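User: Fold this one for me? It's GntR family transcriptional regulator/MocR family aminotransferase.
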Amino acid sequence: MGLPALDAFPRKLWNRLASRTLRQGGLDGLIYPDPSGHASLRAAVAGYLGIARGINCLPEQVFVCAGYRACLELIYRSLLHTGDLGWFEEPGYFIAREFLKTTGLQLVPVPVDTAGLNVQTGMVLAPDARFAVVTPSHQSPLGISLSLSRRQALLEWASQQKSWIIEDDYDGEYRYQGHPLPALKSLDAEGRVLYIGTFSKVLAPGLRLAYVVVPAAQAERFAYVADTLYNHCPYILQSTVAAFIEEGHFGQHLKKMRSLYAHRRTLLIEALLSTLDDAVHLDPQAGGMHLLLRLAAGYDDRLIEERAQRAGLAAQALSKWYATSETSSGLLLGFTNVVDKIQAADLATRLSKCF
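Assistant: Here's what I get for GntR family transcriptional regulator/MocR family aminotransferase.
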């Protein structure tokens, strides 16, 4: 789940840009990379975010990391301390949850409803929390967008408490109804939001490239901490991605993928609904790279997940994304690599045998 359509990756163009990077590279490509990120990529990301995500930042505020977890570690070591209390969406991205727990941070599950993270509940459960981890554009895993009133309430709380908001915008570019929503960071007038983006979903996970945009007042601190971590990303990959963005290929690729994913999403939805019928209810989602199937009463999502994985299907049980015992039953299914109706029908049939 969450794997981009690798068959649609522009390999010829990528190889050409990478070859050019190697040919034109000087001695700077042979030494240790800048721990904060290659200057060309930091500038390209800053420019892209200003146009596409409404984020006004300087290249010096962008820090390139070797994946999402490396971004979290950089934030933790720069601003937080062992034992700090933080809000975490319930349900929420379990990989991030487990990583943060290994650092000694204390996570408070805050429920997500139809308007996203319930900020008022968070203020009751842990009003003095030092941070909040959120996925406002497309909540992981429920797919809900954080409402404007909740965004404003979250920013107001962070400003009053001098707390940090960690915004994970993992697939905000993919929205199939209307235009992509502006990032929460775009509303951040007080400098409390740390914005994380990744190229794993929009290009390829093998790049191991992500980035965090920090408030201007924290850039010097982050640069110091980045220099102490072994978080270097290969020069050739950073420089190639920078060229991909600067020359306009990235915007064209996203436009192409939005259209492709909308089509593939429809293929899988139609196949699932015609095959599984009354056993599931499809949660409506405006964007993202996965579907959420709610199960009818009597079905065990973990048992179905186990059967599905034995059948070679990458279905995930929704209940595993909860930290508490109060869970909801459902299945998370990726659709980005479903190429045609035949494959969609085959996947739906195989999944139906797991119920």
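One thing worth pointing out: Residues 251-352 form a domain with the Aspartate Aminotransferase, domain 1 fold (CATH 3.90.1150.10).
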